[in-house]
Amino acid sequence: MNVGKMQETQNRVVSTQETGLLDVLVTLAENLKLLLIGSLVAGLCALGISFELPPTFQSVAVLQAEQPTASLMLTTAVLDPVIAAMGLAKDDALENARLKLREQIKTAVGRNDKLLTLTVSSRTPQQAQAIASAVIKQTYQESRPKGSARARLETQLAEAQARLKNAQDASVGVLKRLESNGAGGANSGTELARGYAELLNATGAAQSQISLLEIQLEGVSEAQLVQSPTLPQNASQPKKGLIAIGATLATGLALLLFIFMRQAFRNTPVNQTNSAKLTRISKALGLK
To answer: Above 50 in pLDDT, residue 146?
Structure first.
């Protein structure tokens, strides 16, 4: 007896599921034209509008520099001279022009290669390239130390160069003594060899410090420019195809939701309870 009831219940569940699936398919079939035509019309309209949007071009430059240089490019010390030189402020306030230019500039430093990529967007290819070049040129100037910081580095450089010369002169003298026949016994030769090795280490350390100080004094320079700002040929924005596809899909989903909601309202039995619920929904949505 129980087995028969269980079988009957399972059959009802299967039948209900099949009926529900058929209802969905019927609803889709009856509104297929609305879905297709509505989505296509929305996509075509979006594509047409995208042709009216102003194009944006991107100029890209690459430098051998790290995050401090990328941050420097977005400071007022770099942006304000670029705005003044290129006349980007015009009738606008300097602060507003600075905000707009900062939005046009994107910087990114590679995690592995440590290369700084500068991307500048503008309405024309020539202006995008010109702004990128101006930003890089101003970055060169601002990256060089100034005032007391420069004087301190120059003093350290002079001291390092003096140490290098002394170590080189001393190593030459010790080398001559090692090569001479009158250097003395084995112990003396060992001491001289040890002293010569220490002088070589001191020479290498001084050379490394000199190179580092020279780099700091020079700042970011033309030698670190891997790729000059490009002159873009094609607009990067708007992406007309993506806009059309996005509008088509969004409209299709909205129409699909509308169709199933309308069908659900149609299939809802009209009784006092459901009528009250529908009235509450209409009031909540601001519908009469």
So the answer is: yes
The number of CA neighbours under 13 Å toward the Cβ of 235 is: 14
Right CATH for 57-144 from 3.10.450, 1.10.287, 3.30.1370, 3.40.710: 3.30.1370
In the chain, the percentage of residues whose pLDDT exceeds 70 is 80
Q: Give, for 225, the enclosing helix (H) or strand (E).
A: strand 225-227
Q: How far apart are CA 116 and CA 66, in angstroms?
A: 6
- Output the pLDDT for position 99: 92
Answer yes or no: are the C-beta atoms of 229 and 61 closer than 8 Å: yes
Torsion angles phi and psi, residue 184, rounded to 5: 100, -170
* pTM for this prediction: 0.60
Where residue 101 falls among pLDDT bands split at 50, 70, 90?
very high
Helix (H) or strand (E) holding 62: strand 57-63
Kind of pairing, strands 57-63 and 116-122? antiparallel
Among all chains, which residue has been given the structure tokens 């028969």? 4
Domain coordinates of the chain in residue numbers? 31-52+240-284, 57-144, 147-218
Under 8 Å between Cβ of 56 and 122: yes
Helices (H) and strands (E) in the chain, counts: 10, 4
Q: Which residues contact 224 (CB under 8 A, 6 or more apart)?
A: 63, 64, 65
Q: Which of 134, 152, 154 is nearest to 228 (CA)?
A: 134
Distance CA 38, CA 256 (A): 11
Can the peptide bond before residue 125 be classed as cis, meaning omega within 30 degrees of 0? no
pLDDT in tens, 50-85: 777 778 899 999 999 888 899 999 999 999 999 998
> CA-based diameter of the chain, in Å?
123
Q: What is d(CA 130, CA 236) in angstroms, rounded to the nearest whole number?
A: 17
